[in-house]
Amino acid sequence: MTDVTPFLWFDDAAEEAVTFYTALVPDSEIVALGRYPDEVPGMGGKVMHVHFRLAGRDYFGMDAGPQFPFTEAVSLYVSCGDQAEVDRYWNALVADGGEEQPCGWLKDRWGLSWQIIPDRLVELIRHPDPDVAHRAVQAMLRMRRIDIAALEAAVAGT
User: What are the CA-CA distances from residue 140 to residues 74, 102, 105, 113 (Å)?
Assistant: First the structure.
């Protein structure tokens, strides 16, 4: 069976990032970590390969230098059940140098983009009543962190 697994290229902080991610996301772990040998110029001791799981899904990563930074073209999507979960992920990921972005997106301190999205937002923007969906989208477009109560108020017209 063929597996397709995301592989993340970090400048030089793969171990720090992966340790943080696996502590933040339930059902996560570092499966294996290998380091460059000291004989590799400028890379000795850095992460040559790390296999980790986030919410039971496999990822790989490495330290490989600043040539290819992360962009918003790839992001990790976190489906959240309630506002407390949105707030927990949001606050942890923007702390220590993360950057808030519009519509529930952010960049963590390593530059990796995340979407922290409550399930309720998805329900509202897929609502069968196009007016409800439109009001939800318009409210979302004015937000950085998604606020479920503000979405509900916008949909209700209050």
Answer: 20, 8, 11, 18
pTM of the model: 0.94
Q: What is the pLDDT of residues 52-78, one digit of tens each?
A: 999 999 999 999 999 999 999 999 999
Q: With a cut of 90, say whether residue 132 has pLDDT above it.
A: yes
Residue 134 parent element (H or E):
helix 130-141
Q: Which amino acid is at 17?
A: A
Joined tokens for residue 145 = 């962190």
Helical axes 148-156 vs 130-141, angle rounded to 10°: 140
Reported confidence tier of residue 1, pLDDT bands at 50, 70, 90: confident
d(CA 80, CA 101): 17
Handedness of CA 113, 85, 145, 24 (dihedral sign): negative
Q: Is 52 helix (H, G, I), strand (E, B) or coil?
A: strand
41 vs 112: CA distance, rounded Å: 26
**How remote is the C-alpha of 123 from its chain's centroid?**
20
